[in-house]
Amino acid sequence: MNLDILKIASDTNNNKSIKNYTHHSKLKNSMCGDEMQIDLVIKKNKIVDFGYQGKSCVYCQASASLLSKISMNENKSKINELCDDAKHYFEGNVENIEKKWKSLNKIFNNKNLSRKECILLPFKTIKKIVSK
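The structure assignment produced for this chain is given below.
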């Protein structure tokens, strides 16, 4: 287990429930059973509050923590693009993550390829919201 992953996952500032959310999404990883729920407050296509909760592994929690930080005060379209870049990373296109989303480099690396579905679960969950 990488200590960086544990450190990232332990940052739980946005691991919360938002009562007055404007958008909500919940997904389950059919391979391992991890669950992720994301509540957002979106105003004028900008994410102004982000809350996530889940019954999931440390890789999924670390991914959700980083995603929540990146998403704050960003437009839906930019986060939709990030979700596409995340998916493409695991398909072999590592350039966009390395260049545009440097804060994700600690979880998006070759050592964590076997945890792909865990890492992508928060991205797939938010994608259901921001792709609309």
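Interim note for the steering committee: The mean pLDDT is 92. DSSP finds five helices and three strands in the chain.
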